[in-house]
Amino acid sequence: GIRRKWLMAALLVLSLRVQTLLNFAFSVSRQGLVRRAASETASIAAEKVEKPQEEERPWDQLAKTSSELFEDTSEFFEDTMSAAFERREEELAAVTEENTTDIAELLQSAGSDSVAGLQEALSAQAQSLSSLTTQAASLATPPAEFLEGLSAVFRSVKEVEERVATVVGEAVQPGQQLPDSPSEAALPESALGLSVHDAAARRGADGGWVVPIQAWVFRRNNRQHRIRMALCRKILIEMMYGITDVTDEQVQRYEDRGRLIFRTLAFRGGERNVQLSIKFDGEDEWRDLPQTEGNGRVEVDVSVPDKVAAEGGSDGTLGFQLRIEPKKGEDVTVVARASALLFEPDGLMVISDIDDTVKVTEVFLGQDMVVRNTFLEEFRAVSGMVPLYQSWAQEFGANFAFVSHSPPELQEPLRKFLVDSGFPQAPVFLRPLGGSKEERLSFKQRTITELLRQYPRRKVVLVGDSGERDPVICADLLRRHPAQVAKVLIRQVSPNSSVKAEVFNGILPSRWQVFADPSEVTLPDELRDLGSVPGILRYAASIGSAALRGAASVTPGGKTEV
Predict the structure, then answer these.
(1) How many helices (H) and strands (E) does the chain have?
(2) To the nearest 10°, the Cα dihedral for 267, 270, 273, 274?
(3) What is the CB neighbour count within 10 angstroms for residue 171?
(4) Which of 180, 235, 323, 421 is deepest in the core (most CB within 10 A)?
C-alpha cells in the first residue's frame, strides 16, 4: 500500500488535464511520500541498523511484489466501498421495501450476476492501480506507458461506478434511487446547474452602466459522486494527510464542498453551447447572452441604462437573474440570482485577499491544515477584520473587491461566508483551477491591474497577508501605480511569517504597514469621502502642488471650509 501513489490515481479520477497529471505524478513519485508504506514497514526498519534521517529515502520502501500490491489495492477498495456507503441508514431505509439499513444485507437482494460484475470490476480496478503504482515507482517508465496506466485507472473507476449503480438499483424499490446525500430532496431537477458571480459594475461612455457577467453552467450528476467522493476522502484526507478524526458533520461538509470541485474536474458533458438569458431588476424583458464555451462558462459585459439601475437598484446594488431554458422533455427552468455592485468612478476601493487575510485558512501551518480548514471546518473570519472593513465602509465610503487564489468552484460557500460574517458586500474574483503555471502565479496581479484600469480615478488600498506572495505582489503594484494605490496593508499571520523590509525598498513607510492586530491599522485621513469633490481635492492636495492645496480649501460653492 503506497500512500502518495494513491494521490496520482485520485487526480486521475478527478479528470485533471493529462499533461499536468504527468508532470505532477512523476514529481510525487520522485518525492516518494509514502506514509502508509512507511508505517507498515516501521517494525522491520526498527530491527535494522538505524541510519541518519537525511539518508532515508521514502521510495526505498516500495520494494513490494505485484501480488502484495494487488492485495493492498483490493483491501483499499473494499475500504473505499465501505466509506462510500457509510452513514446512509436514513436514505437506505427510505427507499427499501423492508426499511433495510444495512448495506451488506441490502446488496444481498441484488441479482447475483450484478454482484459478480461488481466484484469483477473491483478486481480490475485493483489490478490497474497496482500496475500504476509499479510504473510510478520506476522513473524509467516511458510517459506513453504511464499515461496508459492512468487511463486504465480512470476507466476502472467509471466501470465500478456503473456496476454499483446497477447493484443498488436492483436492491431498492423499483423506480427509486438512493439519494447522494442526506440533505438532498427527491425533487425534479434539471440535468444542468447554474452559478453566477456578483459583479463590479462601472460607468459606461454613455453614462449608463457596464456589468461584467460571469456565469457557469455545470452538469449536476448528483447521484454519481459517491464512490469518487469516498476515494478522494480516503486518498487525500485520510491517507495523504493522516486526518482520520472526522465527524459526521465534517464528512457532510466535505461532500458538499468537494462536489463543487468535482463539477469541473470529474463530471462534464452537456455544458457547451448552452443558451443563457439575463434580466435586471427594473427590466421587463429577458436578454440573450452568448452561448457557453466548452468549459460551461460565459464572460460578457452587459450594458444597463442608468434609468434601469435607478429604478431597479437600491443602496448602490442592482440585482439580476440568469436562466437556462428547459430542454425538451424537462419542466424545470434553472434560475440563478446575483448582484451588480454599482461602483462610481471616484472614491476609495479596498481590494482584499481572502485566505488568512479575512478567512482563517492557516496556509503557514501546512497543506494538511489547509485541507482541514477548506473542506472539513466551518469557514471562520479572522478576528477583528469584519469591524475593520465595516468601519472603512462607513467612515471612508469604501467599496470592496476580493481577489483570491481559491478556485471559482468555491464561489458560493465563500460568498455565503463573507455575507454571513458581516463583511461589506463585494464581488469575488477567484483563480481558475486550470491554466499554465505562469497564468496561475500572475492571476492576482493581473486581476488587480485590470480593476485599476477599469477604475482609473479610484484610490485603492491593497490588503493581503504574509503567508504567501502578497507582500511582493502588492509592493510591485504600488510601484507600478503610485497615483492609484494609496496604501498596502499586510496581515502578519504568525511570528514565523514576517515580512522582510526590503520587499518595500524605495516606498515611503507611510504607504505600507504590516499588522498583527487589525486595531493597529490606519488609513490616511485624505482617503475619507473620496466620492465627493471636496474629498477628491483634499486627497489631491496631500500629494500635489500648492495650487491644489489652495483649491482643496474652497468648496464648489465658493465657501472656505472651516
Answers:
(1) 19, 14
(2) -100
(3) 24
(4) 235
The reported pLDDT for the residue numbered 229 is 72
pLDDT at 260: 82
**561: number of CA atoms within 13 Å, CB side?**
13
Cβ pair 202, 456 in contact under 8 A: no
Which distant-in-sequence residues (6+ apart) come within 8 Å of 7 by Cβ? 28, 235, 236, 240
Cα–Cα distance, 470 to 443 (Å, whole number): 12
3-class SS of residue 533: helix
Look up residue 270 and give its amino acid.
G
How many other C-beta atoms can be found within 10 angstroms of the C-beta atom of residue 358? 27
Beta-bridge partners for 554: 560
d(CA 87, CA 69): 29
Instruction: Collect the ranges in the chain with pLDDT lower than 50.
Output: 1-67, 69-70, 95, 101, 174-188, 533, 545-562
Cα–Cα distance list, 137 to 27, 63, 447 (Å): 11, 9, 40
By the 8 A CB rule, do 515 and 489 touch? yes
Whole-model pTM over 0.85: no
Number of Cα atoms under 13 Å in the Cβ half of residue 299? 4
Q: Identify residue 68 by its one-letter amino acid code.
A: E
For residue 211, list its beta bridge partners: 302
* pLDDT score of 514: 96
Strand partners of residue 514: 490
Cβ atoms 531, 346 nearer than 8 A: yes
Spatial CA neighbour of 275 closest among 298, 303, 295: 298
Three-state DSSP class for residue 328: coil
What is residue 323's predicted lDDT score, i.e. its pLDDT?
Answer: 94
DSSP state of 342: E
| Phi, psi of 263, deg, nearest 5 | -55, -35
8 Å CB contact between 205 and 113: no
Pairing of strands 297-304, 317-324: unpaired
Distance between CA atoms of residues 2 and 138, nearest Å:
14
Cα 558 to chain centroid distance, Å, stands at 52
Q: Please report the pLDDT score of residue 554 as a whole number.
A: 40
Between the CA of residue 542 and those of 360, 364, 524, 527, what are the distances in Å?
36, 38, 10, 10
Question: With helix as H, strand as E and coil as C, how does 432-464 read?
Answer: CCCCCHHHHHHHHHHHHHHHHHHCCCEEEEEEE
- The grid cell for 559 is 465657501
Closest CA to 460 of 444, 446, 449: 449
pLDDT for the residue numbered 85: 57
Q: Is 192 helix (H, G, I), strand (E, B) or coil?
A: strand
